[in-house]
Amino acid sequence: MDRSQNHIHGQSAANFCYQFGSDNPLLGMGIQQQFAPFTSPFGASSSTNIPHMDWNPATMLDNLTFIEDKIRQVKDVIRTMVDNGGQLPCRQGDLTQQQQVVNADLTCLIVQLISTAGSLLPSLKNSSFLSQPPAGHMDTVNHVGSSSSFIPNATTISEENKEDMCSPEDYEELFKGFTDGAMEGGIEIDNVFVEEQDAKDGDEGGDASMDGENLPPGSYELLQLEKDEILAPHTHFCSICGKGFKRDANLRMHMRGHGDEYKSPAALAKPPRDASVEHELVKRYSCPFVGCKRNKLHKNFQPLKTILCVKNHYKRSHCEKSYTCSRCHTKKFSVMADLKTHEKHCGRDKWLCSCGTSFSRKDKLFAHVALFQGHTPALPADETKNSSDQISRVGSHQEPAKFPSSMGSSFMWGTSSSDDRGLDVKGLAGCSEDILSTGNFGSFNFSFGPADGFTGEPSGSSFSVLPPEHFQSAQKKGKN
Amino acid sequence: MSQDGKPSSAGAVAGVDALSQDLLAHALAGVHDPRDRKSCRLASRAFARAEAASRRSARPLRCEALPRVLRAFPSLTSLDLSACAGLDDASLAAALSSAGGTELGVRRVSLARASGVGWRGLEAMVAACPRLEAVDLSHCVAAGDREMAALAAAAGLRELVMDKCLGVTDVGLAKVAVGCPGLDRLSVKWCREISDIGIELLAKKCPNLRSVDISYLKVSNESLRSLSTLEKLEEIALVGCMFIDDGGLRMLCAGNSLQSIDVSRCHHVTSQGLASLIDSQRFIQKINAGDSLHEIESCFLSKLSTIGETLTVLRLDGLEIFASNLQAIGDSCKNLAEIGLSKCNGVTDDGIASLVVHCGYLRTIDVTCCHLLTNDALAVIAENCRMVECLRLESCPFINEKGLERIATHCSHLKEIDLTDCRINDEALQHLASCSELEILKLGLCSSISDKGLVYIGSNCAKLVELDLYRCSAITDEGLAAVAQGCKKIRMLNLCYCTQITDAGLKHLSTLEELTNLEMRCLVRITGIGITSIAIGCTSLIELDLKRCYSVDDAGLWALSRYSQNLRQLTISYCQVTGLGLCHLLGSLRSLQDLKMVHLSWVSIEGFEMSLRAACGRLKKLKLLGGLRSVLSPELLQTLQACGCRVRWVDKPLVYKG
């Protein structure tokens, strides 16, 4: 549960933090300025090109220089602290405030240091950490942002709180939490992503074998959520007002509105993981639908790995497909994410079968056609053809000129059809007259003898009937 | 034949009328020449009725005649529309529907080069002819998947030729394969968009295929693997398939029904592949391996003996072949009827001798460009192959009248001989004239033959159908007179560059009523008068080439437009014609489909525009000077294109030769 929700927490935190920062312009600005050099080397490389993918020494060198700079900065900060501490005991309030500011700076710098240092390791197995999209990267940033941004209010917080915040161990722990969260969150994102893919591809079938840890039954704790629980829109509820949230992080952000005590870094931080969790049994899930392969009663039961898997599986396999693709109006999905994935590709399946099935590859279509009797590949614009089909059949018999003009070849139709009609209807009657009027161009006509026009036989005998002066007169006329 | 029909019919009209239609139809069935049949028709109405009732095939030359053809001949089964000028979707659909409510019995339709017909026309045709079995769509370059989809509705289709239907892809092929599962003969030559995937589906859907032509396709061995599953496959042509190699031929080894294979121009096929094919397919009758095997290896030659009994045709054009190879072929293939050795290096008299000594049944021997052959080779051919009918000896410079004398005395069945570019003289023609069966005689570039030689030919070769006198510059009008006097059956005549010919010679030629193709390039002395006599006399004329006949003027065109109603192909480049003549020509000639008119410097732009407008529905091919492209109106060009006409624009400087 925690693991799967972790990245969600990170992402939502990113959204919140922007707002939060803008609420506190004073320090928000300061922090942003400090971030400026940080984001440039890392941000650029992570957003545009993934460092480890096209690994190059230049970027690495940049990062190292950056780390050097940062270390120097940290040194400076500490040096000022030492200097200040030795100089004079100022007013208590001033000192704490300054300490807080310095500590916040420190935290921020160290976070940057660590993340940059991490990006230097191209051989890291889990590339997702390095290539982790801005969400993960923002994660760390936001934690820092949120932790430092309530500092202005800290002047008014109680003594205990102050002590809490000042203790270096706390900072260490807090910081550890941030970085852990960031890192694990990143890794989790990847895992969840992979699992979703698997689930989509093989109907969760290959899930257990795919993840490499084919747990023997009994070696894990089996949970079965009920249908309502699975389909519930919210899993986290505010203990004060009862409002529901999908994500724990959102709930924590919500809680700030209920009092200052929820604004402490500790309250806002991700709940630390229990030490005992490590020793606990791994959790696996069963689908509540009896008869399903993912149900624990099934003979070949294959457990689901996470809650997210349970949710997706249940919706895909046992719920109505309520989301319809707005483009093709045929494909339906029960998981919104699936619809969005489909919509990205919808319309690109250009290989259509006469049965309506579409394929992204020609060989797949042809294999389909080979398999089923009577199926044929459909022509790209089959629909337009069929719609005009009727018209053209009727039209070709009587009124060729009235072919659908939308077909693009109407030009040809128009010209040829008028010609043909004329010839076809009164060709026979007209030509015998034409023969007598010699000057008429194109008058020497095909239909002289009844069979001459259409056979391969020479029509010599019928033409030789013409007197020679016939020809000469025509010639003279032509010369005139 | 025609002499038999005419005189008897004139007197016996009443008697003929009394006979029953069956009897008359039976009598007509023995009359094969269409001209003779026409004589019968004209002589008696009874014959005309019998003919109309029994006629099975028709070849309309103009689309206006098509409705009448379909009405007049109710038992028509074969319809050839390949020469039908002006045919388009609307006219085809209208003609088929006007045939009345009855279903047409037409089974075979040829629409070769009918570029004006699209899917609408085909759809109407398939709907009107429910018994359709064979369709030829070759060279309809614009035809694509939609046309194939229309054809696929003809479920009974067994034969389909779609050579050079450039728009057809795998989808179109799949349509046909699914729609016509009974297909047994298919040619998709030059349909370059078809790939392995389409062929695979074809093989799955049409198990009865017997003959497949996939020449010049970009397919690989996978296609042959698919085709090898066809149990009845007898004939396969793979000309110019660049991605097919020996591995593919090995896949074809499955089954033993194959009778004919053509792997010419497959550059990756070697002797070994062919050898392994022969090893398993034991009934092969025809092998064409021209321009493919890089060398003849002994593995191939030794395997030939396994099919020695059945092999009748072997073509090895363009290979290096030595006497020993030919001996091996002769030893194993006793029943060869045709051997092709054109452009083979290394073919000598000895080689030919060792081949023909065993192959007594040879009828066709092609040794084009085997430069080393001498009279000895002809002597040994004459001695051993008494049945020989076709001899192609083009560019064999060492043969002369002595060798031909042996041939002429021994091979009385000789029908075709090609002596282009051989140094033969009138004496050789004197010997050849004794071959009274001769139908095709090619004497191009034999500049030493004269009228004397032609007189010999004219005196005895009455069956001559084709005569090629290209660049026989010593020929004059007298020679033509002799030929025209003696060889009334001539259909194709090439007189290009025989520059001494004048109008008087053409006057003699005008007695050749059956002449269909006449090429007269660069006959600078002929004028409109000569053309007029040709036009009046040679009414069957289909193709006429007048390129560079500088003296031909409008008078010639007037005559052509008046009398040559069957003219389909005309070249008048460089002629001295004007816009008026051109206009009249194009307006009148209703069969004209192919026109080449480059450098008509006397014709104005308006002249071109007007004349092309007059004929734009009928023209299919047009050759024009490139400069006209920009000055002719775009509407005209658009119309031409819409009617399926292809225009070839040429840019040549105007140079007068002669």
Automatic annotation (TrEMBL), chain A:
The name this protein goes by in its record: C2H2-type domain-containing protein
Residue stretches making up the C2H2-type domain: 236-263
Chief location bin: nucleus
SMART domains on file: ZnF_C2H2
Domain of life: Eukaryota
Statement: the UniProt record of this protein carries the keyword Metal-binding: yes
Keywords, comma-separated and alphabetical: Metal-binding, Nucleus, Repeat, Transcription, Transcription regulation, Zinc, Zinc-finger
GO molecular function, one term: zinc ion binding
Region entry Disordered, spans: 457-480
GO biological process, one term: response to aluminum ion
Localisation per UniProt entry: Nucleus
Key word ATP-binding present: no
Organism lineage string: Eukaryota, Viridiplantae, Streptophyta, Embryophyta, Tracheophyta
TrEMBL record, chain B:
Domain of life: Eukaryota
A GO cellular component annotation in the UniProt record: SCF ubiquitin ligase complex
InterPro entries in the record: FBXL15_LRR, Leu-rich_rpt_Cys-con_subtyp, LRR_dom_sf
F-box/LRR-repeat protein 15-like leucin rich repeat domain residues: 411-586
A Pfam cross-reference name: DUF7885
Gene Ontology biological process terms, A to Z: SCF-dependent proteasomal ubiquitin-dependent protein catabolic process
Record-given protein name: F-box/LRR-repeat protein 15-like leucin rich repeat domain-containing protein
